[in-house]
Each structure stands twice: as structure tokens, then as C-alpha cells.
Amino acid sequence: MSNDPIHTFLMEAHRICVEAQFVVDSLPNADLPAVERSAHQLGAIRQIISVLEDESMTDAARQESFNFVQRLLDPLEDFIANPPPPASTFLATESSGRPGRPKYKLSISRAQQLHDLGNSYEEIAKAMGTTRMTLHRHFMYEGIPTARRAFTEIDDDDLDEVVAEISLAHPFVGSVIVSGHLEARGIHLPRLRVQDSLRRVDELGVLVRWAGIIKRRVYKVRGSNALWHHDANEKLRPWGFYVHGCIDGYSRLIVYLAVRANKRKATVSELFLGAVAQFGWPSRGRGDFGTENNEVERLLIEHWGVLHRAYLRGRSRHNVRIERLWRDVRKDSLETFRQIFDYLEKNGLLDMENPIHSACLYLVFHRRIQASLDRTRDAWNHHRLRTEHDKTPVALFELSREAAITRGYWTGDPGDAVGVVDDLYGYDGQAPAPPSDVTANEPLQRMEQPMGTEAERAGGILVNGDEELEAARELLGDFDCDRDDENWGIEVYCEAVVRMTSVLASL
Fold first, then answer.
1. DSSP string, 17-38
2. Do residues 224 and 397 touch, judged by C-beta distance below 8 A?
3. Residue 443's Cα: distance from chain center in Å?
4. Bridge-partner residues for 93, per DSSP?
5. Cα separation of 253 and 115, whole Å?
6. Do 378 and 182 touch, CB atoms closer than 8 A?
7. Which of 101, 175, 330, 370 has the fewest CB atoms lying closer than 10 Å?
8. What is the DSSP string of 56-84?
9. Residue 339: its pLDDT value, please?
């Protein structure tokens, strides 16, 4: 670490300028205290630069630094001098029939929903463009209590039964994700009770998971839908399953998580547009150079325009949010099926070179995997984030969404300014690197997808073709591939192979 005071000052000034740039790019939707703080710090830096005397800094360099700080300071000072109207300006009002100002129209049911998600009344009032006192007064008018949602009444035996069921279906997850599974089922409990229950039903697993805890890092984008990260996970690709995921960078909300038989660009764009229909258009998307992302790139550029930098491509290590999600998805869901398929192969029950085995495996397990992913998605979206004051992804997303709706820019928010959206936008340089097996063979430039089933198979786009799977379904007839055999689907798979082999032999 340098002892040179000039070097120390310049390093600190750089840090402050980076923070100030983020505030400037958030205008006019930045918080006034944040604007005032940045303006005060920049003013101090400007004053120091104007009197700075150092042989290593030329007059031209000093003037350039001064001008740079001034360019950051100007929009902040203008915002302070001419602040936007208060958020309450955008609120609808209604007459109470009595003298005085009209009453604000607030959705108390929406406020209660946001509160039950874990947001404070102070945060909800701010997002809705009013004050906590006004919000409480509306609750009082409606006769609705403002107490936080009560914990679910459930005894230890019943809780252990539910936790054991979750732990059996998702054997590699810890108490935070188990809490998310419980919340998704409507069971609201203190973290300590969940930890105690998990320890009772799965003590060895708790010890293993504690050894694998990693430190979280800081990440910043403007708000919900500022940047979506998406990717295809290929841990189950050797067996014909491609898992597609997309996460909102700000809130960490999973907007889609689905298993498919391929990673065609049409498949990815269909999932993406389904998420857009539910959550709205993201300002930007980030993905790797995989050909499956080409259509999503085209859709975003078509929606926002070429100059917006609506789609960012880079290495997996630049796509921090989705890579971090895959770590938990693998533990919560995919690892279980990887071990099942590995078991089938080691015991001579599965040969992926045999088209009967390959097709039956997909038909029997793809809905089972999707059901597991659905549970994982719900648990993730309801698990509490330590770095976000124990808020859940759905709470963060909905609170940010409510604030944007109140201020009138939710459906058309262009997000952060184009000037700061470089190749590393949405990237945390201090975050852990993805596993080497993820980065080893990833493409380093944009390419087009191959056409035709055999070319797609050779290019790793699919294992089973659409026509092959459709033919397999017809051969199985009324065979119930989704039957619960209480053995993870292993017996159903074996029966499907026997039946299809028999049908083909009789033709």
C-alpha cells in the first residue's frame, strides 16, 4: 500500500467519482441524499485539485482532472437546485366529501403484500410516493392491522416431516434455501427453527454444507429490469437435457428456469418472451457468445434500438449473477438427477448410444426435472439474502417495481445511461470465477447456429431430435411416463425401455 499522500488522494478521488457516475446515471430517479453526498464529495475533490501542487502532475493533467470532476458535478448541482416534483405528485386523489385536501388513493392490499414479502413500511411508503404516517393512516381507515405477518403455527414433528420431504427431494441445499421452499408452500418461520429442524433430519448434510459456504460480493445496477443475465446450463447435456435460466441482476429474481431437449436460439427466445410477458422488458440483457443467445440479442436490439447497447456478450466470468445461480441450482436440483443417470449407466441400464434408451430417458425424466426446477425457482425467489438485509428476491423486485410504477417509468425505463454501459457492465471483478469445466470450451465470439438435426447434434445443440422424441411418444402409446414409482423414476424408465423395445420388435 502506498504511503504517498497524492497517490492515496487520487485513489480515493477515483472511488468517489465512480460512485458519483452511478448516481448521475440514475438521474432523475436517484435519491436526493445520495445526490447531495456525491456533490459534497466532488466539491471537495475539485477544491483540492485546484490548489494541488505536485511535480508528477502537469498543468494539463490537473486541468483535465478538474474538468472531469466538474462534468460530474454539474448535473448533480442542477438536480439539487431543481429537484423533481415529489413522488406524491403522481398519486391519484379522491375527495372525502369533507373540507380539506383530497385523500391520496393508495392500494392498501398492494402495500400489505409488499410488507408480507419482508419490506418495511418506510420503504413501501417511499416506493408508493407517500409517507409512512400517511400509509399507516390508510391502513387505519381500512381497519387493517399493520403488524408483520405472524409465523406459521406448526409443531416440530410436522415441521420435520415437511423439511425431511424437501431435504429428500433436494439433498444438497442448506437452511436458507429450505426456508425458501417453506415460504413457497406458505409456511413462514424464523430461520432458527428451520436450522434446528434441518439439523434434526439431516445432521450430516448440515455439516457438509457449512464447509462450502462462500463469501458474497457487492453488485450494483439501477433497479429491477435494468439487466437480465441468462445462460444455458449443460451439466445434464450428456443425457439430453439442457437447462435454461435467466435472473434479474438487481433483485436476483429468477424470471425463468426450464429444461428443454435442446439449446436452439428459438427455444431460448421463446422462454425469454414468456418472461417478458410476465415481468416486462429488461433494459438490457447479458449472455455469453453461445449461438443460442442470438435471437434474444436481436429481440432486445429491435425493441430498444442499436444505440442503446441493449445486449452485452462476454465470457462466463463476466456473467456473475447467473453463474452464482447455477451453483445453487446444481445443488438444489441437478446434482440429484446427475447421480441417478450415473447410477443407471454404471449398472448397465442406460446406454446413451442406444436411441431407445436416450428417448425413454428424456420422456420419463424431463417433467420430473422441470418439477424440481419449479420448486428450486420458488424457493430461490423466496429465500432471504443476507447482503440485502434479509429481503427475498421477490421482495426486492416488487419494491423496485412499485417505485418505478409510482414515478411513471416502469414500462419504458431505458435503464442506466449508455455512456456507462461498457463490456463490463453488470460484472463484479471480485466475484469467484466460474468452474474450469464451464469456461474450458465456451465460444469466444459470436457465431450462427448450425441447421438440421445432424448438424445440431454434432454442434452440441441437441441429443434427441424432435422427430425422434415424437416417434418415441407414439411407440409408448398410453404408457404413463410421469407415474410416481417412489424410486425417482428409475423403475418407470426401465419399464419404458422394455415396452418400446417390445413394440419395435413386433413391428
1. HHHHHHHHHHTTSS-HHHHHHH
2. yes
3. 23
4. 104
5. 17
6. no
7. 101
8. TS-HHHHHHHHHHHHHHHHHHHHHHHSPP
9. 94
Nearest to residue 72, comparing CAs of 10, 6, 9, 16? 16
DSSP-derived pairing of the beta strands 93-94 and 103-104:
antiparallel
CA distance 281 to 113: 23
- Half-sphere CA count of 285, side-chain side, radius 13 A: 30
- Strands ordered across the beta sheet of 242-248: 254-260, 242-248, 228-233, 285-287, 311-313
CA distance 337 to 351: 16
CA dihedral sign, ordered 404, 406, 407, 409? positive
Residue 8 and residue 2 in contact, taking contact as beta carbons nearer than 8 Å: yes
Question: Using an 8 Å Cβ cutoff, are 229 and 288 in contact?
Answer: no
Which helix (H) or strand (E) segment is 458 a member of?
A: helix 453-458
Please answer whether residues 140 and 108 qualify as being in contact, where contact means their C-beta atoms are separated by less than 8 angstroms. no
Q: Return the bridge partners of 232, or none.
A: 244
Map residue 140 onto helix, strand or coil.
helix
Q: What is the pLDDT of residues 196-235, one digit of tens each?
A: 887 777 654 554 554 444 444 455 677 899 899 999 999 9
What do you get for the CA distance between the two ends of the chain, in Å? 78
99: its cell numbers: 373540507
Mean pLDDT of 74-89: 76
Nearest-CA neighbor of 492 among 288, 301, 340, 382?
Answer: 340
CB atoms under 10 Å from CB of 242, counted, come to 24
Question: C-alpha angle 438/439/444, rounded to 5°?
Answer: 130
What per-residue string of b and e applies to 410-441 under the rule 16 or more CB within 10 Å gives b? Answer: beebebbeeeebeeebbbbeebeebeeebeee
CB 469 within 8 A of CB 359: yes
Phi, psi of 498 (to 5 degrees): -60, -45
399 Cβ contact list (under 8 Å, min separation 6)? 114, 117, 119, 123, 124, 127, 391
Rg (alpha carbons) of the chain, rounded to whole number: 27
Dihedral (Cα; 136, 142, 148, 149), 10-degree rounding: -160
The pTM score is 0.65
C-alpha grid cell, residue 333: 436440483
Tell me the per-residue pLDDT of 95-113, one tens digit each, with 9 for 90 and over.
556 665 555 667 778 888 8
Q: Which of 76-85, 147-156, 408-417, 444-453 has the lowest mean pLDDT?
A: 408-417
220's CB contacts (< 8 A; 6+ apart) are: 22
